[in-house]
Amino acid sequence: MDNQYSIVEYTRDHSGYRCGYCKSSNANYSHGMHAYCLTVDHYQGLIDRGWRRSGSYCYKPTMHRTCCPAYTIRCHAPSFHLSKSQKKVLKRMNNFLAHGTRKQSSESSTQQHCDGGSESFPEVAVQHLERLGSDGEEKKPQITTLLDEVPLQEERQKASSRPPHEDQVVGSPSSLASSESSLNASKKMKTVSPGLGADPNKPACRKARVKRLERRQAKLQRLQENDASSSTASFPSSGPSSAIDARKKDKNAPKSLEDLLNESITDSPAHTLEVRLVRSSPASAGFKSSRDASYAVYQRYQTSVHGDSEDRCRHVQWKRFLVTSPLKEQHPDAGPSSGLGSFHQQYWLDGEKLIAVAVIDILPCCVSSVYFYYDPEYSFLSLGTYSSLRELALTRELGREYSRLAWYYMGFYIHSCPKMRYKGHYEPSFLLCPETYSWCPLPPSVKKLDVNKYSRLVENSSEEDTEGTNIDIDKILVLHQRRPMRYGTFRELKGADEALDVVVREYAGLVGKTAACTMMLSLP
User: Fold this and answer.
1) N or C: which end of the chain has fewer CB within 10 A?
2) Looking at residue 431, what is its pLDDT?
3) Which helix (H) or strand (E) holds 88?
4) What are the helix (H) ranges across 148-238?
5) C-alpha angle 219-162-472 in degrees, rounded to nearest 5
6) Where are the domains of the chain?
7) Strand 7-10 vs strand 520-523: parallel, antiparallel, or unpaired?
8) Does pTM surpass 0.90?
9) Model pLDDT for residues 141-166, shown as the tens digit of each residue
10) 143 in Cβ contact with 26 (< 8 Å)
11) Are 128 and 34 spatial neighbours (Cβ–Cβ below 8 Å)?
């Protein structure tokens, strides 16, 4: 059986929890579900509907009710442009590496990174995963092992076959060419018997996908020759690589993100910085060998920056929230060389001292920031901002390999909490409308949030959430007694249960009909 399936359990826990931003004791509301396993496509769809994971717990703020509405925010990486303050951070790092200069940053600790708020993890996630205890670790293999033996009778729609989002940016001709070459290289040669199949003496028929790639490549080539059309001006399809070529011709052009990150230091630098991307789930050899060092940095960060007690930042908590992941490793055709899934991006000083770790997910359309922690001794380097810029550069690099991947997701933007507004400094950024799940430019959205902390961001009053309405709950995919089936079949087996119908319908509206009909909802 194809192991690209997802299993979730909707908790529907909607009690008020402590808020780490406004410090309210019981005004933080969200919907939640435990993810035993998730495909990267399903999780991409979930974060595009306002969900976010903390370890294996996924939660979605109840926007109209919670004390501090949290809007999903993302930046278009190919179009990203540096601000003066961001350039200063990069130059400060380069000066430190070249000369060992230690100049204290004026940046506050809460401006250090996308998750630099006053609370490490959402309280609802902490309580949920602590209640699971060891059972949370044991359920997954029990379910998935049996699923491998139980064929799913109905053909499931795969999330990867969905049409791309309208706002998806088309890659450059070079990236399309690399995609095509990878596709051709993956084809298997077959011997055709006389009278059967294609005539081996005639040219092979090209697949529709290859033809589409060729047409797109030709179109993009024409656009480049004509100096690009107005539709590509705001989101350049050429990407960072062509921008670098253009600056070679214009020495007066401002330096790009890549220019500053890769700037030649000196022949004899005081320090070296190595950035390593290691897969955390399933754990790679690089992750395993650095596990103790990574946890030690996390513990110093939590106690110093967040003021946590040692009991609150135990090894089990670090593993539960920052190592354990429901995301399945995936290596799509023509995808990025790293593959997709959950990773740690590690920052090694002089090849031997780990000073910072970024926890990230690499998904079909984005790099999603999960958490960041660093050694407080190096806070003068503004490592939070520096790592965000590194993650943007990683997104741009992966996008050159895999044209779908063009976005950097920074978690939640919380306008009602002023110290969390710095996420909007990465331009151009967009917020997710909580009612239509369409992406809206940040500047006009901020004006709405200045008036009301909860707001519909889309101007068009007739636009609706088509994924969350008119759902036939009989078609929802469920898992009952380790057997996958449609909810309609489940109701025939178990009898009518109006209360459960309400829960299942609520779940489907929150995750969207595409996910509801392809993810398995675990039912008792």
Assistant:
1) C
2) 98
3) helix 84-99
4) 173-186, 208-225
5) 145
6) 7-159+268-463
7) parallel
8) no
9) 455 555 544 444 443 444 344 444 33
10) no
11) yes
